[in-house]
Amino acid sequence: MAKSKAQLLLHLVILLLLFMSVYPLAILLFGFTKDGLEFQYNQFAPSLPLWFSNLEPAWERIGRPVWNTVFVAGLITVGGVFLSSLGGFVFARMRFYGKEVLFYFIIALMMVPGILGLIPWYLLIRDLGLVNSLWGLILPGIFGAPIFGIFLLRGFFASIPEELFEAGRLDGCGNFRLYYRIAVPVSLSILATLAVMQVMNVWNDLVGPSIILTDREIFTIAVALRDFSAELSTKGAETNYPLLFSAYVISSVPLILLFAFASKYYVEGLTSSGIKL
User: What Gene Ontology terms for biological process does this UniProt record contain (predicted)?
Assistant: First the structure.
């Protein structure tokens, strides 16, 4: 009897937490399909008819930042995954003096809070003349991504059977051919996982773009949404929340599509990396 009451209480707590997690998302989805007047009188429940007229003005405001973020995320992801996979292969399959010590230094960098490097990062961007430029985000992003990527991929590459590499060496493959002929093709799932993580990091990054970007034409989506939200919030009770919600929904669509197409590889990569680390 006591056990059943405990389970009932646990289920109630889980349902409460689930409701607290889902309901804000439901308000967002209900809200962007209303007009301003309807939202003032009915904020927390769905209503008919559905209004989609807010999508066009919202896209006019954040469309450019969406493409800017796609551009930045694409280059950072491609470059970061390439350097991460190359570094992971080197630490997993090549022998050189001080390899383990150097790898521990890389792991140690993961323990340093990113906020501590914010001022040196800005000074470097300023000295390179990349302030108010998307390249001020892209170049540091590419060379900063391998820190976690090397840690993640080293264990995966180390678990690949040595017989595959021996067969490649017998066929005359050098180290780089072993990397892109053997290591990369059998690691697509973990590479896809790393790519999805990288895209999400870039898409949600607010601090970096807020510091170096001042021109609205090159805003990323996080900065554009912050700016748009602040602009609408100054109107007080007349704030057009359905328009703001429409901007949120539009900005979420690329990530939803990415996860829909990459979810299989993402889950496979997480499970395989968990087993092989």
Answer: transmembrane transport
Q: How many domains does the chain have?
A: 2
Q: Are 153 and 84 in contact (CB under 8 A)?
A: yes
Task: List, for residues 111-156, the tens digit of each pLDDT value.
Answer: 888 788 888 889 989 998 889 999 999 998 898 878 888 888 888 8
Which CATH number is 185's domain given? 1.10.3720.10
Query: Are 86 and 184 in the same domain?
Result: yes
Q: Which of 227, 220, 81 has the alpha carbon at shortest distance from 143?
A: 81
My answer on whether omega of the bond before 209 falls inside 30° of 0, hence cis, is no
Determine if the pTM surpasses 0.85.
Answer: no
Q: Are residues 253 and 181 in the same domain?
A: yes
Nearest Cα neighbor of 82 from 14, 15, 180, 170 is 180
Of 261, 148, 249, which is closest to residue 197 (Cα–Cα)? Answer: 148
